[in-house]
Model the fold of this input.
Amino acid sequence: MELRLSGTPAEVWECLHPVLILADWTAEPVAGSDGLYAMHALDLEPPAAQAWMRLEADGDGTLVTVWLPDEVEASDRDKLRTALESLVAAPSPTEEALLNRLRRIEGQIRGLQRMVETRRDCEAIMTQFAAVSSALKQSAALLLSEHLITCLRNELAEGRDATHINQRLLNILF
Done:
């Protein structure tokens, strides 16, 4: 299995390590090798079937390659595959909507630049400024609503202090 993650191998390892543990796998760096990890499912005592993972940096981030032997239980294999695939999940509908809005705003900004370069009348330029400002505010509201739904809900579920969460929200808003 191969997947590409953004970041350096060290940054990718920081993301991968807790995901592996949650999927009931462990990985240890192989001494004397660069980016190679020996893996096994935590329920294997002693670890009978050894799996391997390599982290290699390239221009697009880090390529993660995982080799699983045939002896690995199907349930362990599926759990690991699901955990790793979750790291490269497709953007959520909210992310797609936000990116589309930002692309439209980028076009509006270019139009605004052309208006200034061609010395359009002040009223038309100010109307375009208002449209860009409104679009940015709506995009920020979309991002904030997603943040409230996912991030803060997750923090509360993890038992984090509500006062701290409220303070973070106030810092974001003001």
Q: What stands out?
A: The chain has two domains: 2-86, 93-173.
